[in-house]
Every structure is written in structure tokens, then in C-alpha cells.
Amino acid sequence: MLNLLGTRGTLPVSGQNYVKYGGNTTCLMTTVSDESCVIFDGGTGLTSLNKYKNFKEYHIFLSHLHWDHIVGMPIFEAFYNPTKNINIYLENKVEMASTDILYVLFKPPFFPVPKSKLRADIRINLIDSGDQFKFGDVGVHVADGNHPDGVLMHKVFLRDKIILFTSDYEHGSENDDFLIEFARDCDYMIFDTTYTPEEYSGEGGGMPKVGWGHSTFRYGIDFVKKAGVKNLVLFHHNPDYTDIMMDEMGILARREFKNTFVAFDGMQI
């Protein structure tokens, strides 16, 4: 089972207009055992794991280092617990080879607690597109996506299903053909649908969002149909989109692909 702890993009939101789908930024989790779990991204949804004290080993895969995908990490209590083991996996880039992400996240004056105060056994693992991992019955295959500054997609192999997690992906590049093959015959694809087609193109009257690194439900539908994916999950919701707007997007998407679901905080796949 894959738990969607945060499904919003860009920044967290709250209030009466965001009750149904939630306002936490990107974070997904699946358990390996009673004491181990695999996490994808560290947005504010990560903090919901603070109430679970049983996990001793965490494997955290970061798709990329934009703020909405890492902002929950400084508030993640496991970092301060000497009984916890945390492995962080991030893309092997030249600019990161000499930069410790933890020194950036835990650094005054941006955050009051410095890295020296962390007590968990923390290891940084630089990974590349094509790498594969196995944690008990959970498998993870990573591949390049298409997003400013780069992004990794994660294909998650569970006991009874295969789920492709493709947050922060913009259509229209040479990566599209690879994405279709990477997604081939998956049970679910969790796809970046930050914008409506009209907002993305600018036809709705606003500034076009071309080149901003995100996509629409219409392209998500196109990808799952070509790849033979059984179910589409709309994800990385625009913080400006209320519950009513998300309901409307889901209705429009299901008219074109009936097995479409709108992700919400707390959803389980």
C-alpha cells in the first residue's frame, strides 16, 4: 500500500476551501516492515509521520530539491532521535557532490537548529537514472523526468501492484516517449497535473505556464492511454485550486479516462 501524505505542490495551503483534498506538499510512504519504511519526497506531508514511533529505519527518496519537496524535513522528528537510521537518496549532480543538503536545510538564520544538533544515523546516497533498489518486498526504480533543475521519477513495486510516481513533470520534450515506456502496463500513474489546460496555455487570460515544469490532466490521460496504465491519479495540486475546482477537474478528466482519481492527503493506493 502506498500512502499519499501530501498531494499539493508549490506551497502548503489551509482553510475551508481545502478540506477535501488537503494542503500538505508532496510526500508518499510505503511500509517495508513494522520498523522500516520507504518515503518519496519530504514536503510538509512528511510531518504526519511524527506520530508513528515504531519506525527505526527510513529510506527517503527525493525527486528533486525544490522547496515544496523538502520543506517538511527540518520538522521531521526522526532526525533528532539517536535510535533512528535515515538514508536519503538524491540525484547525483555535480553541484551536489560537494554540498551537503543537511547543511542547507539545518542552517541558521533560515532554520534555528544547525546540522550538528541532529542525532539520527543519517546517510546521503547519490543516485542516477536507471538505478534500482530493493527493500524487503518493496522495489524502487528511478529514471529522469522533465523539470527545471532536473527531477527523478520513481517506479514503485509493491506486492500486488506497480505504481509510477511522476510528480513535477512537464510534457513536450524527448522524455515523453521514455515516460510512456517506463510507465508501460503500470497499475497506477501518479502524475503532475498542476494546471488546467487553459491555464497552462494562457487561454484562460493569465500568463502561460509553458516551461514552468508542470503539466495538465489532459497530457496525463494521453500518457496512460499510450502506456496501457490502468489508473491515473491527478497530483501536485495547484495551491490556488480549491476543493470545488479540484472536483471539476476530476469530472472533466473522468469524461476522457474513467479510471481517474484526484489525489488527496491521506489517500491510499
Question: What does this 3D model show about the protein?
Answer:
α2 crosses α4 (217-227). This protein has a single domain (3-268), classed as 4-Layer Sandwich (Metallo-beta-lactamase, Chain A), CATH 3.60.15. It is 16% helix and 27% strand. The radius of gyration is 18 Å and the shape is globular. The chain has 269 residues and is an alpha/beta fold. It has a seven-stranded mixed sheet with strand order 6-5-4-3-2-1-14, with no helix packed on it. It has a seven-stranded mixed sheet with strand order 7-8-9-10-11-12-13, covered by helices on one side. The protein contains five helices and 14 strands. β7 (132-135) and β8 (138-144) form a beta hairpin. The relative contact order is 0.16.
- Nearest-integer average pLDDT: 95
Q: Structurally, how many domains make up the residues?
A: 1
Q: What is the chain-wise order of helices and strands?
A: EEEEEHEEEEEHEHHEHEE
Helix-and-strand structural type:
alpha/beta
Task: Compute the CA-based radius of gyration.
Answer: 18 Å
- CATH topology, what is it called? Metallo-beta-lactamase, Chain A
Summarize the biggest pleated sheet: 7 strands, mixed
Treating each run of at least 4 consecutive H or I residues as one helix, how many helices?
5
Named CATH architecture: 4-Layer Sandwich
The shape, in one word, is globular
Which band does the percent of strand residues land in? Answer: 25-35%
